[in-house]
Amino acid sequence: MLFEKEISQAKPVEFYYWKSGFKIIAGLDEAGRGALAGPLFVGLVIFPPDFYSPEIKDSKLLTPIKRNELFEVICSKAITYSIAKAEVEEINALGLMGALFLAMQRALSSIKEIDLLLIDGPFGIPDYRGLQKALIKGDRRSLSIAGGSILAKVSRDRYMQKLAELYPEYGFDRHKGYATKEHLEALRRFGPSPVHRKAFKCFERF
After folding, report:
1. Burial 181-204 (b: 16+ CB within 10 A, else e)
2. If we measure between CA atoms, which residue out of 72, 77, 18 comes closest to residue 46?
3. Domains of the chain and any CATH numbers
4. Separation CA 114–CA 110 (nearest Å)
5. Tens digits of per-residue pLDDT, 57-78?
């Protein structure tokens, strides 16, 4: 029986699952779902049993400098980790959820064994054959999901920095493809680029 109740912030949910006999617990989270441009990234992390670091938390609560520092910590402390993405063309073709599940499957494809998969949000992965648990606000309840959120966010931010060099007029290095005032003004001036998610309804007006 999987735990449904909220947990104390003093202990990540993994501690309860470890005590219940689950040994290999993976956490999965995404970055870039709400952006108007660029790919969607997914990070998966498996920490050793009883590992804990109070610094590893939801990537949205951390500064860019701290996220980059923790990226290296997570990669060195994890038993294993995986980073995957869904391209803009796949987002346009499959929709956000279809592309998200595709990226998640890609992240899982390199992992040989998982006792329990924890996923941030209300939805599990369709057709996943293992045991999985979707956690609302999972990046604030699960250490491994928080770790995955950091890997996904840092990886995507670095990717958007590269896109900023290819398309400097959009300012991707500053807003990372999200719908800021600067980004929307650039879209009005220049129209969408090849890395914009043109299947989104908002692009009908550009």
Report:
1. eebeebbeeeebbebbbbebeeee
2. 77
3. 13-205 (3.30.420.10)
4. 11
5. 999 999 999 999 999 999 999 9
Cross-strand bridge partners of residue 133: 118
Between helix 143-166 and helix 64-77 the angle, nearest 10°, is 120
Closest among 84, 118, 105, 91 to 34, alpha carbons compared: 91
Q: What would the mean pLDDT of 130-156 be, rounded to a whole number?
A: 97
pLDDT more than 90, % of the chain: 90
Token pair 């931010």 is at which residue?
157
Q: Which residues contact 189 (CB under 8 A, 6 or more apart)?
A: 169
**For residue 8, how far is the Cα from the chain centroid?**
23
Look up tokens 């992390």; give the residue.
45
Q: State yes or no: 58 annotated in a binding site.
A: no
Residues 92-103, buried b or exposed e (16+ Cβ, 10 A)? eeeebeebbbbb
Q: Output the pLDDT for position 50.
A: 78
What 3-state DSSP class applies to 197?
Answer: coil
Question: Is 50 marked as a binding-site residue?
Answer: no
30 assigned ligand-binding residue: yes
